[in-house]
Amino acid sequence: MISIKNQTELKGMMKAGELAAQALALAGKNAVAGISTWELDRIVNDYIVSHGGHCPCKGYGGFPGHNCFSVNEELIHGIPNKKKILKDGDILSCDIVAELDGFMGDNTKTFAVGEISEEAKRLMKFTEEALYKGIEKAVAGNRIGDISNAIETHVKSGGYAVAEKFIGHGIGREMHEDPEVPNEGKAGHGPRLMPGMTIAIEPMVNSHFREVKILGDKWTVVTTDNSLSCHFEHTVAITGGEPLILTLEHH
After folding, report:
1. pTM above 0.85?
2. Inter-residue contact 24 to 15 (CB < 8 Å)
3. Which CATH number does the domain housing residue 36 bear?
């Protein structure tokens, strides 16, 4: 069932989203050659906890980290690891969820570590653009499929592939709520968008092929050909007018 948030709940979502966005920006500032993803996880968790929140990913389905840090061919769900040291030329997707006063903010950004290849820059550009193409369609009266189709169309226009299986989702008091928000689909299909709905829109894009596989750690999702993948995400509220991005550093 899709939950519709009232104004008080939306304010709570905005505060949680702001904390998640600040934590994501902090991760990006610290994503430099020589740091481990474990250390990044510690920095982000300390920040969220010091601001009265917590990281609901920790223990979710048994996930061992507080946040997901995925490097290069890793699409999503990279486990923080002391041995995984960032190096110049890497791209790092930081997927950070903050819970504050019972509400969730969920956002992701792929960061460049030092100087990266033109290929990596282009993939990141198209993925981020696809996120905003999807957000543009997040208006009352449209359907989920309008968001999905806008993302898919832009991703394919760059010659890239929407990663199979993994999708965006509703969000609120729970990290994952109805409705599902796929990154590909038909315009005009799916649940109708109504004011008060809050959704996480998150294009997950592979350089070449849709196919992905899950590593032996049961979490880390990678491209099957070891090519680069990329991930951007915002939590968005449907309003009576323009979409409202809830995961911004300053509202």
Report:
1. yes
2. no
3. 3.90.230.10
